[in-house]
Amino acid sequence: MPSALPLGDPAPADGLLPASTAERAAERNFGVYLHVPFCRVRCGYCDFNTYTATELRGVAQSDYAAHAISEVAFAAGVLEATGIASRAASTVFFGGGTPTMLPATDLTAMLASVRDAWGLAEGAEVTTEANPDSVDAAYLEQLAAAGFTRVSFGMQSAVPHVLATLERTHDPERVPLVVEWARAAGLQVSLDLIYGTPGESLDDWSRSLESAIACRPDHLSAYSLIVEPGTKLARQIKSGGVAEPDEDLQADMYELADARLAAAGYGWYEVSNWATDDAHRSRHNLAYWQGHDWWGIGPGAHSHVGGVRWWNVKHPAAYAGRVLAGESPAAGRETLDAETQRVERVLLLTRIRDGLSTTELDQHGRTAVAGLIADGLVDAKAALRGVVELTLRGRLLADAVVRRLLADD
After folding, report:
1. Alpha-carbon distance 387 to 88, whole Å?
2. Which domains does the chain have, with CATH numbers?
3. Residue 361 DSSP one-character state
4. pLDDT tens-place string over residues 171-228
5. Rounded distance, CA 69 to CA 59, Å?
6. What is the pTM of this model?
7. In this structure, are residues 11 and 313 in contact, taking their beta carbons and an 8 Å threshold?
8. Is the separation of the CB atoms in 99 and 152 below 8 Å?
9. Between vectors from CA 15 to CA 333 and to CA 305, what angle results, nearest 5°?
10. Which of 15, 65, 272, 344 lies 20 to 30 A from 253 at CA?
11. Residues 368 and 405 sit within 8 Å (Cβ to Cβ)
């Protein structure tokens, strides 16, 4: 089952936000995330808030777009009532699940509702995730015509036995085809990869990297497999049916990825993300890491505006009941104090190549930088400019770097 929602304070039914969220709002970008919680099958490693047809009860998938559009209208009303001047959406991201399980007309209607509510900033980035077997050329052309600018395909691997372990259903030979269709439609392309799957060798991973690079996407993400509690994969590992991921092998895979991608002209800009140039970075994800504002639409979606964070009820039926009644679908929320916000900025900004300004650190953190340089975890030249930028070794040990910046060993 999907992971549990965090604990928090009760969220008001009218969704109204504290007046403090309007302070300096004009200096922050505004993005919209639309969660589409449907998948054809549930992959054994996944703990996202998603539902297959056999798991969905009390609500129809065909009604989902209308429910999401209702929340968009509700969100626009809340921001206006809170006193936050309307800001055009800089980025819009459809995630899941598999957004392209819905008809293209549903996604385009949801995007139109965002445009109607807030407008889209000039040059706005509009992305949808997709599985390679969930779209065809005509579908991608419809998205591009409606204003989508980018598609992120869940490639994961080019090796059949690795895909089988992950319970991915697509044929790896379809990936170059869908990339070609997306490019023909005028869409930018990102490919998502996963490394460290049980049974995956370094040669397997090398093959996946070469296959991905051969497609010449604009952007690549590579994530190490995390075994989430409660997933089918976690149960298989616990029973001894599947081997646990090898952390040393995962580190070797990361180093191989960085070397191959650099040689092919891709630069890292976040620990798990590479792009051909700055223009092809995922601006939506950067907004998360940089602490901007976004409203998450859909069951289980998370939002953040001006230091207030909240999350929606998880089940699509409960979500539908709330939004159709004109109530906030939020299950809970929290207001972040200044110190918590500072700690989160250290945690997130350390992960991106643009780095963390040492002015964000307290005295302990500034003192710790010298030791991190000596240990080969932080770039010395960047530190002289007042920026904490991770080295390759530092990226492999990013969590440890953050711990040292924030607290005594």
Report:
1. 31
2. 19-289 (3.20.20.70), 337-409 (no CATH)
3. S
4. 999 999 999 999 999 999 999 999 999 999 999 999 999 999 999 999 999 999 987 7
5. 16
6. 0.94
7. no
8. no
9. 60
10. 344
11. yes
